[in-house]
Amino acid sequence: MRKLLALVALLLLSPTLLANPDERLREANFAPERPLAQVSLERKNQSVLRYLWADVYAAALYTEPNVSAPQILDRQRSKRLELYYFRKIQREDVIEAAWTTLNRQHDKATLARLRSGLDALHASFQNIAPGDRYALNYTTDSGLSLERNGKLAFTSTDPELASAYLGIWLAPNGLSDSLRSSLLND
Known about the structure:
Elements: H1 2-13, H2 21-28, E1 33-36, E2 39-51, E3 54-63, E4 79-85, H3 91-105, H4 108-123, E5 133-139, E6 143-148, E7 151-156, H5 159-170, H6 177-184
Antiparallel strand pairs: 1-2, 2-3, 3-4, 4-5, 5-6, 6-7
C-alpha cells in the first residue's frame, strides 16, 4: 500500500504529468505532411493519450489528400499512424496491451491465422524511452511497415495483419475510444 501511495504522489507531483495537450502536441512536433511510397500523406488529426492522469504518448494520423479520416479504415487507402512517447514503457507491457486489445477485437480463429505475423511484429519491439517515435505505415503496394525512430524495424505484405494492428488504435473496441474518436474526427 505504501508503494502505491508513493507512486500516486510521485505521479501527481510530476511537472509534466498534466501538461496542456497543445504543449504535448508541440513537443511531439508531428510534420504536416509525410511521404510514403509515391504518395504524400497529410496529417488529418493528432491527439494525446492519457492513462491514469499521465500523458503516455501523442498520436498523429496521416492519410492521402482528399480522404476523410473515417475513410482511412478502407484497406485500399495509404495511411500512417505515428506515436511520440512521453514515458518509459517496457516492451512486454506494450505487447501485453496489444494482445489484450486484439483479443477484445478479434475471434480466436482470426488471431490464430495472424499469430505468426503478430509474433514477428512483436519480436521487433524494443523498450520505449521518452522521445521515441514509432510509426505504422500501410500502402497497398508495400503493405505494413513499422518504423522506430525513423528506421525500418518490420515489414509485412499481409493486409489482414495491417488492418488488425492498425485497428488497435483505429477500430472499435480498441486501446482508447477517446483517442480513436480524436484521430478519426472529421
